[in-house]
């Protein structure tokens, strides 16, 4: 059984490297189209199946109803995004950061009194903290997007590799980093690539992510028009390739580990509901991509919030392996 398990892990790791290469090739050729396809088709199924799997794992927290608090925070993000627009640029990032800090408390602390005290201290700290544009960029834009799909995926992979200690696992972790770097080192030309009006209209809600990443990586351009930079320059294509690859592989990595994670082992009724919502969500995207984005916004953010405890657990496991505590 041990040999069979090891063999399966190796097969999955090598398959993941293949999926990385496949995603990278598509990202180089059709970055915007790949992202829109992955986000609309693979994304909703990932949200639904991962939330179901996390529920079986009690969301990796020490309290039975911890997920309720994270869900309420997610509802607030939706409310201040579409129903009652946020009063300032810090309001939504504050909610996201509080969700992350709450997750840290939920993972590490079991005593309710300590939890309440630490939660109040987290609220006070966030309220008193001096925020600015960098706070908005890192917490409000990067954390629920590129950090979630790339950094947290890498950490989740590394955490699993450290537990299994397999060469193929370390190779897959290294491959993810190297392929991501390739988008910035190779700097492939536009390949006669032109972005259609449908793509620019459908991608509108993600627009800020690209502009901030272009600035973060210091990709200089002669154009002063942000739309031109994002959709018509090599700098814009470099960033979009990285984003498309990160999101596509984030989803494929989840589905490739079905035999290990066992997220598919749910009651038939749950599976039927999941598939029905998935099909309905895809139909919304087909009718109008922006309608699909807004309709699935809550579900998308909910899986980000509910995954925070798992992300913290992954980093906790990595740090324990690197810096073992002497008993």
> What is the succession of H and E elements?
HHHHHHHHHHHHHHH
**Roughly what percent helix?**
over 70%
**Number of E-type strands:** 0
Largest sheet: none
Poorly predicted residue ranges:
1-7
Number of helices, where a helix is a run of at least 4 consecutive DSSP H or I residues:
15
What is the alpha-carbon Rg in Å? 20 Å
Mean pLDDT: 89
Which structural class matches the secondary elements? mainly alpha
Proportion in β-strands:
under 5%
Q: Outline, from the CA principal axes?
A: globular
> End-to-end span in angstroms?
32 Å
Indicate how many domains the architecture comprises.
1
Defining traits:
327 residues, mainly alpha, single chain
Notes on the structure:
This protein is mainly α and about 325 residues long. It has one domain. Helices cover about 80% and strands about 0% of the residues. The chain contains 15 helices and no strands. The chain has helices at about 1-30, 30-55, 65-85, 90-110, 110-130, 135-165, 165-185, 195-200, 205-215, 225-230, 235-255, 260, 270-285, 290-295, 295-320. α2 runs antiparallel to α13 (about 270-285) and α13 (about 270-285) crosses α14 (about 290-295). The two termini are about 30 Å apart.
